Write a sequence for this structure.
């Protein structure tokens, strides 16, 4: 196996405060999580959160040399964040800025069993993060730049994403492969009212790998479709091959080379551009670029006991990027993506469940069962070797 190349993970970081509510039955929780009621919880987990921590530290656990670049305040929460990272690897603090004028970002995450999470989030110092935080010297020493969560970074998303477009453009000028993840904004916030289509037109021509969730993507790119599906129930449960193909075609038309759409318990979807576009991927491009061109795959999740879903999407991205940096095939990369995501949800926090690259591959090789997924659409067929669906083109 080819050793992984080097990655920068930049953008949003926060302190996650996760109360243990696993003993509360979902029905009891839903009926009583309202004003005037007290629900008794267990101890709280403190961990670093956001993609710089979740994706970055997962990449490190998967054996990828990584540099973290983010901003926190010089306050109590900021000291907790740096102490947690320092305990993992002191060298990871070299790209972390402590801003004495800023407040450290934090999230209170309520994650009951078998129920989606509720977040209370303070963006804090992330609002002031700029393109200049990532220096030319840092770019020169890396092969891939992954950036996460522009919807909770005001300076990054302002002016149609000027700062984000500048960062991605500079990274491409240095020859890097670029990767971008989103998060779901508060619909009532400034980011929730933003013209995200305009931002995508500015930024995505400089993005190689785009890895949003389906809900995030529809909210920002096709709001009317989002509203229509949300009114009928779970958006992910209503995802069809036709919808995913349509969305990925639009994104590739905007300049993305690899589209990875996260689908929660239904796995993950991959679409790649043509060979001419894949040739422009940068230093993290696979040697067998023809094998990565014109691919369309849907990988179901692996079966696990879900303890918490915090950071599961970030872990899925880490699995995919670690495979890309090791020059696997698209099918292998998708298998690793959903495998790392599945390991993640076996723990309450975003990192404890993630295993090493070798342990993850060994678990897959031992016949780890998948959740059922059936696709009844023209051109789609099951790849029995990798236990995922692929569309012939």
């Amino acid at each position: 196996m080819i050793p992984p190349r080097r990655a920068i993970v930049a953008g949003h970081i926060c302190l996650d405060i996760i109360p243990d509510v696993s003993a509360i039955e979902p029905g009891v929780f839903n009926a009583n999580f309202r004003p005037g009621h007290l629900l008794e919880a267990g101890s709280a987990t403190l961990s670093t959160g956001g993609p710089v921590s979740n994706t970055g530290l997962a990449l490190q656990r998967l054996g990828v040399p990584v540099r973290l670049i983010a901003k926190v305040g010089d306050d109590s929460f900021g000291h907790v964040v740096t102490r947690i990272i320092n305990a993992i690897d002191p060298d990871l603090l070299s790209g972390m800025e402590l801003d004495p004028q800023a407040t450290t970002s934090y999230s209170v995450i309520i994650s009951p069993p078998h129920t989606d999470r509720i977040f209370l989030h303070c963006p804090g110092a992330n609002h002031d993060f700029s393109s200049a935080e990532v220096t030319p010297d840092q770019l020169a020493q890396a092969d891939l730049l992954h950036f996460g969560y522009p919807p909770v970074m005001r300076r990054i998303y302002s002016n149609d994403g000027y700062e984000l477009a500048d960062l991605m453009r500079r990274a491409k000028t240095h020859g890097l492969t670029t990767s971008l993840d989103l998060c779901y904004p508060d619909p009532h916030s400034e980011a929730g009212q933003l013209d995200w289509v305009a931002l995508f037109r500015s930024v995505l021509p400089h993005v190689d790998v785009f890895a949003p969730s389906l809900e995030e993507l529809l909210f920002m790119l096709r709001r009317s479709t989002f509203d229509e599906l949300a009114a009928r129930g779970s958006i992910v449960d209503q995802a069809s091959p036709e919808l995913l193909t349509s969305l990925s075609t639009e994104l590739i038309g905007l300049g993305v080379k690899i589209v990875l759409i996260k689908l929660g318990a239904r796995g993950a979807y991959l679409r790649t551009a043509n060979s001419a576009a894949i040739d422009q991927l940068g230093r993290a491009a696979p040697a067998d670029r023809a094998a990565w061109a014109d691919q369309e795959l849907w990988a179901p999740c692996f079966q696990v006991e879900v303890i918490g879903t915090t950071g599961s999407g970030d872990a899925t991205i880490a699995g995919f990027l670690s495979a890309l940096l090791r020059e696997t095939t698209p099918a292998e990369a998708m298998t690793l993506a959903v495998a790392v995501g599945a390991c993640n949800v076996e723990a309450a926090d975003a990192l404890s469940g993630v295993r090493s690259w070798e342990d993850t591959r060994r678990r897959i090789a031992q016949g780890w069962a998948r959740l059922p997924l059936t696709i009844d659409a023209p051109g789609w067929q099951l790849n029995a070797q990798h236990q995922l669906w692929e569309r012939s083109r």
User: Anything to note?
Assistant: The CA atoms of residues 160 and 199 lie 4 Å apart. The longest strand covers residues 66-73. The domain at 50-103+125-391 is CATH 3.40.1190.20 (UDP-N-acetylmuramoyl-L-alanine:D-glutamate ligase).
